[in-house]
């Protein structure tokens, strides 16, 4: 095959950057280290794809195409070399000249030649049944919610169902994301533009969710469409299409643990607090709590005017300070888990809900909730003898 392709350098660079999350250095087949380029002379477009078999990313860019053959052709470019090259090239346009198994890349006076993969057995495109309902919503809202929720997902690959993000379409026209590792849980509800006839859900593997975050746009005007068929999900916006395989496992029934049987636990006894003040107090306490007998153990105690936050180690010392947050029950948390939740809160005055020293501690703002299981009883600084209920266990009604 011989073809000449002319496109904008910025278009090509952006497209290649979006494809790179699906390129893995540990790919089991050499073909997966390549970007597939399909030439479409009818539409004057180049269709580019990458895959690691778990994720497939596709996009298209406009190009001036000159073919010396009558039928559309495709070729495979080594992804990392091409990405590194395009990133440092200058000029407004890039000319790609394909000649057999060689690719000439030219911008201005700069010319480089790349060897193309001789074989053409690139994995076929993912497919999905026609007529599946889709969810339309702001890509910015979805990306923000996913970034906040994903921090609670388990990184333990032996707990497969927790190594994921739960995505649930609610009947009232809302999308709920949730993630848990059994010791903390994060969930957020976002609204979308059309109501669904019935609830549906799927589990997005953690690796698939992380790669999706790398390519989702920050453009507030960008609309995201989501479809799922039980085995894979499709996220599309603009010219981008992101496919991800789904988990088939059962997710824990966690709702009662936060909302209770009546669904109103978040409304009772929630206290506002200054996010920055609590975050800095926990940061200072955690420095000493790292070497505590129970690692990262930070204590929270009620005082006459607020809440005392402390961390202590017999070897390194102690941090203790008081902030304005009226609580009546002592509790203790893993300082790192608490900091992760506090870091994604946006409101300067979110809420804290606590119903018992051995009950989950809940931080919330709007439709975002972050829950942490207690580590110890702050009262008398003793480890809890009655183990708290894990998020993925059957919750006990309050």
TrEMBL record:
This is DNA polymerase III subunit beta. SUPFAM superfamilies: DNA clamp. Residues 5-123 form the DNA polymerase III beta sliding clamp N-terminal domain. GO terms for biological process: DNA strand elongation involved in DNA replication. It holds the Pfam family DNA_pol3_beta. Belongs to the beta sliding clamp family. Keywords: Cytoplasm, DNA replication, DNA-binding, DNA-directed DNA polymerase, Nucleotidyltransferase, Transferase. It is found in: Cytoplasm. Its main location: cytoplasm. It comes from the Bacteria. SMART domains: POL3Bc. GO terms for cellular component: cytoplasm; DNA polymerase III complex. The lineage of its organism: Bacteria, Bacillati, Chloroflexota, Anaerolineae, Anaerolineales. GO terms for molecular function: 3'-5' exonuclease activity; DNA binding; DNA-directed DNA polymerase activity. It is an enzyme of class 2 (transferase). Its EC number is 2.7.7.7. Residues 137-253 form the DNA polymerase III beta sliding clamp central domain.
């Amino acid at each position: 095959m011989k073809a000449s392709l002319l496109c904008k350098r910025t278009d090509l660079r952006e497209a290649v950057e979006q494809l790179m999350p699906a390129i893995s250095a540990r790919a089991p087949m050499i073909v997966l280290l390549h970007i597939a380029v399909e030439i479409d002379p009818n539409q004057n477009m180049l269709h580019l794809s990458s895959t690691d078999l778990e994720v497939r990313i596709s996009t298209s860019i406009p190009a001036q195409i000159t073919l010396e053959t009558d039928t559309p052709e495709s070729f495979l470019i080594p992804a990392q070399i091409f990405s590194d090259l395009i990133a440092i090239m200058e000029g407004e346009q890039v000319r790609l000249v394909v000649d057999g198994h060689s690719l000439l890349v030219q911008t201005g006076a700069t010319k480089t030649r790349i060897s193309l993969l001789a074989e053409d057995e690139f994995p076929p495109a993912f497919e999905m049944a026609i007529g599946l309902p889709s969810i339309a919503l702001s890509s910015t809202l979805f990306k923000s919610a996913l970034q906040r929720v994903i921090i609670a997902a388990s990184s333990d690959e032996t707990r497969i169902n927790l190594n994921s993000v739960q995505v649930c379409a609610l009947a009232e026209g809302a999308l709920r994301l949730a993630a848990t590792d059994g010791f903390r849980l994060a969930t957020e509800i976002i609204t979308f533009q059309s109501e669904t006839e019935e609830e549906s859900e799927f589990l997005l593997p953690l690796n698939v969710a992380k790669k999706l975050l790398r390519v989702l746009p920050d453009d507030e005007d960008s609309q995201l469409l989501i479809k799922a068929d039980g085995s894979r999900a499709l996220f599309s916006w603009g010219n981008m299409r992101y496919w991800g395989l789904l988990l088939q496992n059962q997710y824990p029934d966690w709702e009662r643990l936060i909302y209770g049987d009546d669904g109103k636990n978040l409304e009772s006894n929630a206290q506002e607090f200054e996010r920055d003040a609590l975050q800095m107090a926990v940061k200072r306490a955690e420095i000493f709590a790292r070497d505590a007998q129970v690692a990262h153990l930070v204590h929270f105690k009620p005082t006459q005017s607020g809440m005392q936050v402390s961390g202590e180690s017999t070897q390194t010392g102690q941090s203790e300070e008081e902030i304005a947050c009226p609580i009546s029950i002592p509790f203790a948390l893993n300082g790192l888990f608490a900091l992760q939740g506090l870091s994604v809160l946006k409101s300067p005055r979110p809420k804290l809900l606590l119903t018992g020293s051995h009950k989950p501690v809940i931080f919330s703002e709007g439709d975002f909730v972050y829950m942490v299981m207690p580590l110890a009883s702050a009262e008398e600084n003793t480890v809890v003898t009655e183990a708290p209920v894990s998020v993925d266990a059957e919750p006990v009604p309050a």
